[in-house]
Amino acid sequence: MQKIKVTLLAVAILFGVQAKAQLIPISIGIKGGVNTSDFSGGLNTSNRAGFNAGLTARLNLPANFYVGANAEITQKGAKLKHFKSIEGSDVESKANPLFLQIPVHLGYKYNLGLSARLRVEAGPYWAYGIGGKIKGDGKKFDFFGDNTFKKNDFGLGAAVGFDFWKLGVDLGYDFGLTNLSHIEGTKARTRNGYLSFSYRFL
Predict the structure, then answer these.
(1) Domains in the chain, start-ordered, CATH in brackets?
(2) Strand ranges inside 63-148, DSSP E
(3) Phi/psi class of residue 182: alpha, beta or left (left: φ > 0; alpha: ψ in -120 to 50)?
(4) Three-state SS at 86
(5) How many whole angstroms separate alpha carbon 199 and alpha carbon 188?
(6) What is the pLDDT along the chain (202 residues), one digit of tens a residue?
(7) What's the CA gap between 173 and 97, in Å, rounded?
(8) How many beta carbons lie within 10 A of that of residue 176, not counting itself?
(9) Interatomic CA distance for residues 32 and 55, integer angstroms
């Protein structure tokens, strides 16, 4: 009898949590994917691959609009051709800065039926550098520093997405507006395309 009571109580709690989640117009999940990034502004660079991973949340608004926000670790950077390092030598280098990034997008979703939705969204992001190196010619040094690059980045992003049940996929692009470079006469603004996959557990 005691086991039956415990089982019934657990079922009731689960149904209660599910009902409460349905009443609150917010969804929470995890995400991860790949990046292809570069710098614009004068550096001689080419694209390099990276990754993104973190938490995602979405607040549903009336008329199929929503506000989406992420808290994610994202690896940007570029291949730097003939980059003059802080030691003063020209080297072929790779930059792999890591950022904690928080984008906030306003979006619109179009219901396709059978739990499928097509989405479009856009908005600003803020990112803070948390690590990463510049490597080349057998040398490596910190990407962020007084003689290299700044930690704070701000920009705009846009994406298209597709949801099915609790799964999602997003294809987007971020345009950095901040000049990250501490190097005199050089500008560096992040450019980052991404493909990410998500699973919403709430």
Answers:
(1) 25-200 (2.40.160.20)
(2) 65-75, 78-84, 90-95, 98-113, 116-131, 133-136, 139-142
(3) alpha
(4) coil
(5) 34
(6) 554 444 444 444 444 444 444 556 999 999 999 999 999 887 788 899 999 999 999 999 999 999 999 999 999 999 987 665 545 555 678 999 999 999 999 999 999 988 999 999 999 999 999 999 998 877 888 999 988 899 999 999 999 999 999 999 999 999 999 999 998 888 999 999 999 999 999 8
(7) 17
(8) 23
(9) 9
In what side-by-side order are the strands of the sheet with 133-136?
Answer: 45-46, 78-84, 90-95, 133-136, 139-142
Structure tokens at 56: 């995602």
Here the tokens at position 149 are: 């690059």
